[in-house]
Protein 1
Amino acid sequence: MDLLDRVKQMPSQVGALVERITTRSSSNFKFAFLFLGAEEREGLRQVYEFCRVVDDIVDERAPGPEGDREAAEALDEWTHEIARIFGDPYIGLDPPRTELGRQLKACNERFNFPREAFDEIIAGVAMDLEHSTYSDMAALRLYCYRVASCVGFLCIALFGDQSPQTRAYAEHLGLALQYTNILRDVAEDAMRGRIYLPQELLARHGLESRDILEFRYDGRFVAAASDFAAAAEREYQTAWRLLPKTGQRALLPAEIMGRTYYEILQEIRQRNFNVFTNRTSLRRRDKLKVAALVLARMGLANLG
């Protein structure tokens, strides 16, 4: 039986929920939003707005040393804004100076964000000021931990479960998502002069940076990409082994996001890792299938 046929046989509440997905959401991110309450959804919007702001500081900076300096200063100001959000006495108890900062401060009073996650995200995007390549998986893992796992730590605060097991789940799922993004976006990053696939991995398969920058798709790249996909696969499987057996309803948005990106990874594999011709994405129908399967797997047929 096709998964969509199985969806039709689910209780009416789930059917209505899935129907809402198909009509109101067009992106992976929006899919996750639809499974949150109003306060949590607004909090997640703020978290991702923060991520977008600090990321844009680096990605849209002016070229050359002056642009790097201005971006570093802007990131430093956001580090101080985070301190103001959390009432850090070492810089004084001034209120946040930005509208987003004020929103995050109010949201933090409700959800108790881990402060270090904000600081680590800033440190992660700052790494793009210093590096256009990464030497090995350990160096790349630190970057991905900062820009992805730490976002996950903020999300699980919104979802209401910051237990050590859920935190470990979020850490590995964040790594898996970011590795998938890196593999999917090899061409896009290369056009900006960036190569996130580790230099050690490329060298092991006889590749150099210029092969990536020149979009050279051959057996060497397929082998390197396959190894990198295997690293992402390990992170997905580790995350799912850590997924708590209870309280899964709270983690439904994370699971839908994770399973969606896992399907993107499978699609990349089916294309034999040709990420230079077209950017891999899922059709709305396929996202619907993923959402329905997660609902079925997590036993949430009575979700209201």
Protein 2
Amino acid sequence: MVKVFRGRAQATPSEQRSATFTGTVWADPIMPATENVMVGNVFFSPGARTHWHTHDVGQVLNVLAGRGFVCREGEEPQEIRAGDVVWISANERHWHGAAQDSYMIHMAISIGKTNWAEQVADADYVQQGD
């Protein structure tokens, strides 16, 4: 099967995310859930980030603009910038988001179910993200 998705539909508004994110985050789905894969562009305002989460199969992040961090549980955050591509393995507990002083836009390709957990505490984020 081959499916062609024609980019973001003009009449489709961006979605503000809040239940599983901290800070102001907007998302534009660019491919609806298809065979357990979702693709979307996500805009993080400075300091905004995901909650802790995992993906049943994995996730790819393609950083399109700005600067941020990705952090696997138990490790130090890694800086990510425009042009970077990140692979997160299946069931790796992690978070990602913008730096305190920069927005970040990434394309997220999520494979399998996303399993959301608690938010990343402000104090932990500032300490880790500095």
